[in-house]
Known about the structure:
This protein has helices at residues 3-29, 72-76, 115-119; strands spanning 34-35, 54-57, 82-90, 96-106, 125-128, 142-144, 169-170. It is α+β, with helices and mostly antiparallel strands. One iron/sulfur cluster binds next to helix 2.
Amino acid sequence: MSNKSYFGGIADGLKTLATGMKITWKEYFTPKSTEQYPENRKTTLHVAKRHRGRLVMLRDENGAVKCTACTLCEKTCPNGTIKITSQMVTNEEGKKKRQLVDYRYDLGDCMFCQLCVNACNFGAIEFTNDFENSTFDRDALVLHLDKEEYKSSLPNLLEGGAPLTIGKFNTKTK
Length: 174
Ligand code: SF4
Ligand code: SF4
């Protein structure tokens, strides 16, 4: 190895070190938003509305689920998280119609990719930011969305909780 390449290597090393340190110092002085969870879960916790916590089923003004059991979401899901059971019924006009019997969603398998929501043409499902889903029983993560009366785990959570304040340590308040 020549002296030139030896010192050239040292110069390159110092240059990359300086580049890295520049980013480190920049981030060090950038204001942060820190959530002291769970201490602040009922006080100053902020959770972005668009955070994908779990899937829920939407209902119309009469309280009926909007799902038509078309199975597009089930077919789109890459890992079989959704299982739809349906039956054919005859409506008042004598026409045959598919009716949802069960909408099974395994939260433990979900990758939160949102492909199912994007595939639905009826606006029947959506993600909420409700993220407190941990449990000791894996079976408890198997949900039947059409049967549940969904309530968020924390008040005001679905609206994002407390306002996000950049540069503030969001900790417990009395
Ligand atoms: S978010 Fe993705 S993984 Fe989860 S149910 Fe929808 S398509 Fe399947
Ligand atoms: S949620 Fe939407 S895509 Fe899935 S079965 Fe129901 S209507 Fe079809």
